[in-house]
């Protein structure tokens, strides 16, 4: 009797074995932190409203002077936004892995979910990308800055890091996984459908920055729900 191992049978059996659900909750905590810091970054950005002040409208020099008094807020915005960006990538990786374990092998849900959060991370990275240039310039001698560039910077940080529309795609993907494939509790699916749907609508509308209000909120609720489920398990 031959003792040779049948490699074809072994490979087939291994590929058909159920995939285990990823253990640990560090990635879920990262998502919760990303959502909270996303909200904090939006609040800090909202305090930098010199360019939207009617009393300063059209006066680039006055706007630059106002911004020079708000360097701590600029640093707070930058720090919160970039920490959120880093943590969001950790959460995206963990969510992608879990969705692959809980959804059908041919499902597009895991890929759409991670792509949506990737769009948000890119917007955060770019949204905070000019703060180094202007924070140091405003803290030093604001007179060395061309006032119109400071006006542009104020518009930039009031818009780009608020582009959380990609989270709407992730929310809709999670809703599909929960409501159609039973991957999560149905309440989590409905929350993702509502908040994710609204966020996705902002993504395709001219009011894209409004997604900065609903996207982080969705992330906090979902991460809290996932954290609760991991504790129960």
TrEMBL record:
This is DUF4386 domain-containing protein. Residues 1-22 are annotated as: Disordered. It comes from the Bacteria. The keyword ATP-binding does not apply. Residues 1-18 have a biased composition (Polar residues). The chain crosses the membrane at residues 27-52, 72-95, 107-130, 150-175, 187-204, 210-227. Keywords: Membrane, Transmembrane, Transmembrane helix.
